[in-house]
Amino acid sequence: MSTTNLPEVWLRGPLSNIPSLLQPVAHTFLQAKEEIIEMMKDFPEEHLWDRPANVASPAFHLQHITGVIDRLFTYAMGQSLTEGQLAALRSEGQAQSQTVAQLVKALCDKIDWALEQLSSVNEQTLREARGVGRAQLPSTVQGLLFHSAEHTMRHVGQLLVTTKVIKGISLAQK
């Protein structure tokens, strides 16, 4: 059965290896992964960096979702960002030679990594304080994990609209 015939991920039941309080985070990541794979299937490579109406390109959204998950999970683990993570942040949105398939794979790999991380979270640590960024703005483990899922879906929605606009423009020009 294809995922398009299934109910949304959150209606398919709990994931056995994820703590109960983190089920919504895991479900959100799995839903995002399914939707991104479907919407980027057969997306024209030549339009990966297009910015219709000056909105963010599809490539940016794919890079940014991957990076956000990485960065917010780093903070949730009580760690600071590395130079590599900061360099990746600075490069988000800058045209690169990555293909649609490479960007989608990197994102799917990051989601799979995030699910592994979620499976090892002790629910007793969810309310522990965590600092975000150089300013160490206040959050918690739970806040960071939930925001990573929420932010992911925000960009999935933007990606959906942008890809539909680009595909519509591309078809109209043929």
UniProtKB/TrEMBL annotation:
- Pfam families (alphabetical): DinB_2
The name under which this protein is listed is DinB family protein
Identify the InterPro entries for this entry.
DinB-like, DinB/YfiT-like
Specify the DinB-like domain's residue ranges.
34-159
Which segments does the entry list as coiled coil? none
Question: What superkingdom heads the lineage?
Answer: Bacteria
Q: What is the lineage of its organism?
A: Bacteria, Pseudomonadati, Bacteroidota, Chitinophagia, Chitinophagales
